[in-house]
Amino acid sequence: MQYFYISYPKVNIFFKILGILPNGYCDIASRYMRVRGKLFDNICITDSLFFNIKGNFDCKIEDNTIFRAKEVLKTKIANDNISKKLELFSIEVEKKIPSFAGLGGGSSNAATYLLAMNEILELNLSKNQLASIAALVGSDVSFFIYELDFANVFGIGDRVEEFKEKYFNLDIITPPIKCSTKAVFDEFKKMPNFSIANMLELDSILLLKKFNLELLNDLYVPALRLYPKLKEYAKDGYFFSGSGSSFFKILDKG
């Protein structure tokens, strides 16, 4: 049996850092937007005699977010029968979402896998239960679990609140620059400039019209210090997603 899924990317309309948590992670407030355009990964899940992940990944299988999602799910389910079934799938990912680009491709893949296993194995886990599992896999995974177009996201990306507004289309460009998320956050911590979350109630289009990319994304300046060539792609009307390197702009209002 084969199962087919689409894994969409995200952009951050704004990304504000409110402080540093005791565990060293940044406390964020951000507007996430799921981008349902032409850029997405195709995931094919097939019954198999053993677990396998295929795809053009930039990491070892053990470091892949899908593999981590499987291991966390096994731990949280704590059911030997389910654990055995989780090992009997081949996962093939046709990667189109670039890595190290601020688009959450790996997180989206992990969430899609968790949603798929919940459906295929009839685990009957709620979205909230899946999101709790997702939070242990990676920072952005919980957002993708809820399959929302827009959400205000807090903490380390594990607190997700739906934000209702009309969908609109984006143009996304990803420079040939691989931005390390850890390096960009570490660079921010060297010269921290904490924000106040005063953008939470504004519609995304209004935010993109009212503020420039530096005011909307606290990670742009530290990313620019590490990767100066990013400035060549910061064209008028474009905004910076996450820790980079992708930029996006409004194409229309949906």
Keywords for this entry:
31% helix; alpha+beta; 25% strand; four-stranded antiparallel β-sheet; 254 residues; 9 helices; Ribosomal Protein S5, domain 2; 2 domains; four-stranded mixed β-sheet; Alpha-Beta Plaits
Provide a concise account of the structure shown.
With 254 residues, the protein is of the alpha+beta class. It has helices spanning 65-77, 80-86, 105-120, 127-135, 141-145, 181-190, 204-210, 213-216, 220-226; strands at 2-7, 10-20, 26-34, 41-47, 52-55, 89-94, 150-155, 159-162, 170-173, 239-240, 247-250. 31% of the residues lie in helices and 25% in strands.
Topology:
Elements: E1 2-7, E2 10-20, E3 26-34, E4 41-47, E5 52-55, H1 65-77, H2 80-86, E6 89-94, H3 105-120, H4 127-135, H5 141-145, E7 150-155, E8 159-162, E9 170-173, H6 181-190, H7 204-210, H8 213-216, H9 220-226, E10 239-240, E11 247-250
Parallel strand pairs: 5-6
Antiparallel strand pairs: 1-4, 2-3, 3-7, 4-6, 7-8, 9-11, 10-11
Helix pairs in contact: 1-2, 1-3, 6-9
What does this molecule look like?
The N and C termini lie far apart (36 Å). α1 (65-77) packs antiparallel against α2 (80-86). By secondary structure, the protein is α+β, with helices and mostly antiparallel strands. It has a 4-stranded mixed beta sheet with strand order 1-4-6-5, with helices on one face. The protein has 9 helices and 11 strands. The chain folds into 2 domains: 2-162, Ribosomal Protein S5, domain 2, CATH 3.30.230.10; 170-250, Alpha-Beta Plaits. The model has no long low-confidence stretch (mean pLDDT 95).
